[in-house]
Structures are given as structure tokens and as C-alpha cells.
Amino acid sequence: MSICVHGLGYIGLATASLFANEGYDVTGYDVDESVTEQLRWGEPDISEPELEAYAQRALNDALTVSDDPVPADYHLVCVPTPYDDDQESAVLSYVRQAGQTISEHLRRGDTVVLESTVPPGTTEGLFARELSQSGLVPGEEFRLGYTPETVLPGNTVTELKRNDRIVGGINDESTAVISDLYQDSSGGDLHEAADPPTAEF
Asked: How many CB atoms lie within 10 A of CB 41?
């Protein structure tokens, strides 16, 4: 199975490395060409030694870095959602952009997972609307769901592998397929939520 990880920041690179080191065919994509160029040189800008070595191993093996998104069985979105200037709400422009980008490559039967920290309702609302530009219907022609990353810097690799996860898909099939993907790479328990807003909350 092929995976395209959108966003190669701290969590995106760790997520891409996790699946690459588990044997998946992974492409990491980022809009910042300075990030992708640095990674192509095998020099991730990470101050955490264990994660740096983990990422380098992936880059030397199954992780391909690209300036362009690619078609994939799974699209995992790990883009930033910083607070606005008033520190009151999340800026979702990167999530919107990721949805637009994926819509250009989305195929019937693909699965899209949002991991970025977002307000409840984002997956089924803004994100789903952007993905629908593909002409495909969420939940019917492609699977869609949300699972938050829950790691603390300093122990990222261990936490990424062992922490529990919660998954909320827009229907039962989406939840089951996404759960199967993360269950294969996680040693923690996996909890299935009733819907994306529950997982987002």
C-alpha cells in the first residue's frame, strides 16, 4: 500500500518515517522546498537524536521526499494549524490547501486522514468540502476520518509507536480502514470514536 504524507514538519516527518520503517511505500510532500531539499540531503532539522536517526533510516530506505503530491492509497495530513494573532482560534488555511491539493489526485477507494489539531467539525466540514472538489463523494467513493497525534517532543519515536490512538471516520467503513492502518504500526490501544468531531474534541 502507498502512503502520501502531506506536511513534513516535526510530526509529519515522524509519521512518514514510522510507516516507511514499517515497510510501507511512503512519499513525503511539503510546500516548502527548503524543507524537501534538506531532507533529500538526508539532513532532517531535528534536535531529538532518536527521531533524527529514525528519520534518516527511513530516508535511506522507503521514504521518498517530493515537491509535488502524488496519488496514493492513503493520504495523511499533518500540516500546521497555528493560532491566529488573537490566540483565540486555529488558522486552517493549511488544512484547506491540503484538501485542495489532495482533491487533484484523489481516486475512488482512497483513504484520507486528517491528523492536524483542528476544532471539532473541521473534518466533516471544511476539509470534506475541499476534498469534494475531486468530484468524489466522501464516505461513498473515498474514506475519510480524523485521528490526532498525541506525542510530546523529546520522546517522539517511543510515543508514536506506543501511545493509544482514537479514530473517528465519517462512516463505519472509514473508521475500520483507518483503524487497521494505524493498528499495524502502533503498540498502543486503538479506540474507535462515533464520528470525527468526537475524535477531534
From this structure: 10
